[in-house]
Amino acid sequence: MKKRTYKIVVLSDLNNVTDRMLKNTVKFAKIIHGEITIFNIKRPTEIVDIDNQLSAMRSINTEHSAIDRQLSELIAPISKSQEIDIKYSFVFGNIKDEISNYIKEHSPDIIVLGRRKYKPLSFIGDGITEFVLETFDGPVLIASGEHDLEPGEKLSFGVLNDSGHSMNLEFAVDLMSHVLKPIKSFKFVKNSNASKNKTLSQNKEVIEYVFEYSDGAINSLSKYISKNKVDLLYLRRVRNGSDDERVLKLSDIGHIINKTSASVLVSGK
Questions:
Q1: How confident is the model at residue 248 (pLDDT cuts 50, 70, 90)?
Q2: Fewer C-beta within 10 Å: the chain N or C terminus?
Q3: Helices assigned H by DSSP within the chain
Q4: Does residue 116 sit in the same domain as residue 78?
């Protein structure tokens, strides 16, 4: 039976897509049998003088050529070295509107966002990360620009508030076949009597770490993720009206994304 090919779109403003981040996306795409398209969006107000229509058209044409060249120069060496075709397209327009239009028109299976070291996601000022998580029903990958996922090597895999066996992912089987054992399982508990940052259980399949849910819990979590050299952390996304304690709030997901340098995979709804 022929495997399904998953459509992966990388949302870009050319500031959040680095060579390393794109290579990590390629690694992920090869694991799950995905095809990659980079979709770059830029506001017209960033490049044009709205009071002069002729000047505006010249600026857009110049920027169009510049973006095309930048994307081509970024993609070509990675596409060649990794032996994978990477497509790209770009538009000038309102970022949220263009993302919504792209999702409706192309129905991607996975959206990828990048980030900068020690800074919020490059789109964060516009609430784009939250917008994508609220608007898009599928999985969202925050690809690290700091750690390399080496082709051919298995991933050091972590899960938060989940066993890893009930992942809401169509490609879970493919992903888990490329994961190192034991899996690192991190769990927040609200019981004030629970021991903080305690290794609860350990076997050949899973090592579980338990954290008391508090203001500093996510900071502690990020330290353990780094200590365990986790390449990819899986999070379950919030569902409206859910009382499942394993499901994280959107604000918690955003905090975790910004605190850890590992790639973060947020489940679909």
A1: low
A2: N
A3: 19-32, 53-82, 95-106, 128-135, 172-176, 217-227, 250-259
A4: yes
Residue pLDDT, tens place only, 60-103: 777 788 889 999 999 999 999 888 999 999 998 888 999 999 99
Rounded Cα gap, residues 71 and 21, in angstroms:
14
- What HEC string does 7-41 produce? EEEEEECCCCCCHHHHHHHHHHHHHHCEEEEEEEE
- Mean pLDDT calculated for residue range 32-54: 77
Report the percentage of the chain scoring pLDDT > 90.
Answer: 30
Q: How many alpha carbons lie under 13 Å from residue 56 in its C-beta half-sphere?
A: 11
- The answer to whether 231 touches 261, Cβ cutoff 8 Å, is no
| Whether residue 44 sits in one domain with residue 117 | yes
Range of the domain at 38: 6-142
Structure tokens at 137: 């029903």
Do 136 and 171 lie in a common domain? no
Contact by Cβ (8 Å): 42, 60: no
Examine residue 86 and state whether it is found in any structural domain, yes or no: yes
Q: Which residues pair with 186 in a beta bridge?
A: 160, 209
- Cis check for the bond before 182: say yes or no (omega within 30 of 0): yes
